[in-house]
Amino acid sequence: MNTEEINIVFTLSDKTGNYSATFGTTIASIFENTDFNKVVINIHIMHDDTLTIENKRNFEKLISYYRQNVQFYNIKLDWAKFKNLDCIKKYTIAQLYRIMIADTIKVDKVIYLDSDLIFNLDIRDLNNEELDGKSIGAVLDKYVKGIDAISKHEYVYKIPVNVEEYFNTGVIIFDLKKIREKYDTFSEGIQLLKKYPYEVSGGQKQRTAVARAIISDPKMLFADEPTGALDSKASTNLLKQLRKINENGQTILMVTHSNVAASYADRIMFIKDGEVFHQLYRGTMTRAELLDKICDSVTVLMRGGDESES
Questions:
Q1: Neighbours of 44 (CB within 10 A)
Q2: Higher model confidence: residue 154 or residue 18?
Q3: pLDDT level of residue 161 (50, 70, 90 thresholds)
Q4: Which residues pair with 267 in a beta bridge?
Q5: Overall pTM surpassing 0.90 (yes/no)
Q6: Is the pLDDT of residue 47 over 80?
Q7: CB–CB of 277/310 below 8 Å?
Q8: CB atoms closer than 10 angstroms to residue 238
Q9: Which of 39, 140, 143, 264 gets the most CB atoms within 10 Å of its CB?
Q10: CA distance 192 to 201
Q11: H/E/C letters for each residue in the chain?
């Protein structure tokens, strides 16, 4: 029988000294409801310097009791780079760590959990939640139940939860493999968080718009004259970005008057008077060869279609 491996991520900034105990409660509740004959659980804790040596040892003691694995990642942030995000530093610093998961934890899939959850299910059930092809999925806390903390561990914290009223979206499944495939697209947008709109070029704005559009894994991405307001260099960069996104499985429908832009596609449909006049398929053609075919087709179209190919 194959053993399933599940990776769970917590992000911790223990400003008050109480968060570590609530994390312990969540971890204990998961372990108490999971059949370890069929699964190995790896706990990944992303933290800052607020995690004390004592609390780190408490985590290790708790997790080793269940003979599971834990790994710690001390996150160092240069807050000068996040000058416009002071509110995050003050209130939800640990949540900022979530955008670093794909770079920090070298596995293909993780479950991210908040610290204020108590589970009453086998964690395998959550790990098998269907993401419907998406790379990120927020799971409603339908598995959270208001129960007393696991009493046999001193390192837990009783969380009063009214199951009739409690609602939280602190359960997120990340398909890190898919996220990394799109990382080049997302990374530029993240870098632009440091800038004001007037400091960003037209090409950067367009590429950031593409990143924003694909982050939720849409069935189809619509691009209406995406290179219309860009110079040739910015247009080339954007078209290469779209091509790479397409090669990773994203369907793109682009409307363009540019022969060059069309040459980056796999299928080109020429519209005349509201109807499909002609089609081209890339097949084994290079982009240069396809561009020549597109130019020939446009020439015929401009002449009125009398010489169109069958």
A1: 21
A2: 18
A3: very low
A4: 281
A5: no
A6: yes
A7: no
A8: 23
A9: 264
A10: 10
A11: CCCEEEEEEEEECCCCCCHHHHHHHHHHHHHHCCCCCCEEEEEEEEECCCCCHHHHHHHHHHHHHCCCEEEEEECCCCHHHHCCCHHHHHHCHHHHHHHHHHHHCCCCEEEEECCCCCECCCHHHHHCCCCCCCCEEECCCCCECCCCCCCCCCCCCCCCCCCCCCCCCCEEEEEHHHHHHCHHHHHHHHHHHHCCHHHCCHHHHHHHHHHHHHCCCCCEEEEECCCCCCCHHHHHHHHHHHHHHHHCCCEEEEECCCHHHHCCCCEEEEEECCEEEEEEECCCCCHHHHHHHHHHHHHHHHCCCCCCCC
Going by pLDDT thresholds of 50, 70 and 90, the confidence category of residue 84 is: low
Residue 302: the pLDDT is: 84
- Measured CA to CA, the distance from residue 22 to residue 18 in angstroms comes to 7
